[in-house]
Amino acid sequence: MNAGSGSFYRLLPEEVDERVRLLGLPAYRARQLLEGAYRQLAGSWEEVTTLPLDLRRRLDAELPLRPPAEVRTASTPEADTVKALLRFADGTLVETVLMRYPPREGRGHPRATVCVSTQAGCAMGCVFCATGQMGFERNLRAEEIVAQVLHFARWLRPLGQHVTNVVFMGMGEPLANYAETLRAVRILTHPRAFGLAQRAVTISTVGVLSGIEKLAGEGLQVGLAISLHAPNDALRRQLVPTAAPGSVERLIAAARRYRERTGRRVTAEYVLIEGVNDSLGDAEELAHLLRGTDIHVNLIPLNPTAAGYRRPAPSRVSAFARALRRMGINCTVRREKGTEISAACGQLRTDAARSAVIPEPVATLPSTQR
Ligand code: SAH
Ligand code: SF4
Fold first, then answer.
1. Nearest residue by C-alpha to atom 14 in ligand 1
2. Of 59, 146, 274, 331, whose Cβ has the fewest other Cβ atoms within 10 Å?
């Protein structure tokens, strides 16, 4: 890439400074560009009227903002969960989800979490995951990850709301696309760029051990979630067929080291699947495995996909949670959000592909919310 091309969203603020210098512009332009992109949320430099017109034209050609196109959306009636299918310049499609929550205890600001994709498709092949079933297409670039967050930042703006959290829990395995994921995290959390708190970012991984180790040494305060799903290797390898032997123990050990090095408590995600990993025996084995760690368990009742697995009944989910708590394990059950809009990542895209044959109505947003 030469000095005059590429996407602006890819650049760290120090690199923006450098680029501004290379373009022969005065240093203060860097601040104007960063504010135009991340405060004003401009979709093109044309909109940033604090810049001279000829410069706007030049930047649109040489250092464009280039937001992805929204191909399709699905929303719950109250728009507390909104899912977008986004298309990048080369036609690649990914899903991004916005989840909105009221202020805690009725005070403060409403919260809005954006769930970003880091790859188109995924090579890990988890049997219950719609993305895993489509296979791997390509890694996303940092600017494409940043642009997903900005997409919903723009959506929230007419409501006077902001993105408060970002979770790397969309399509793909973030730590299998380590460098681009980290670059996106640094841009999203840089005070001169998007400016989120590091603690407001969580990376979820199916267990790329070298990636967890590396992340622990970045000097960041981002949260880590490990997708465990099973209390033993035999069961885990059934659900995550690409997991190496011994992955359960090694994943727990990596989580403990992450905790020690960063001070951040790690979450273990456990997708509950009826008749597969939801027995009280499984809960007991899980409690035994996690004893002595302060890993927090997040139980996720399965969002059924085409694979034929089912979600356990609510009573079974709460029995599993109760059993864990009784054995001293901290756990929460993920609030069900957006099941009706195919909210499990990968599902909207799968539905869109299928609807080429069988039309499937998907709710679109009321125009007042756009
Ligand atoms: N690849 C990473 C991050 C993306 S998946 C990972 O696996 O952690 C984010 C979370 O969604 C994971 O915990 C994953 O197991 C979960 N998930 C995938 N498909 C799901 C489904 N159909 N229902 C519920 N959770 C699902
Ligand atoms: Fe990939 Fe995560 Fe889906 Fe597994 S659950 S296939 S790692 S996106």
1. 227
2. 274
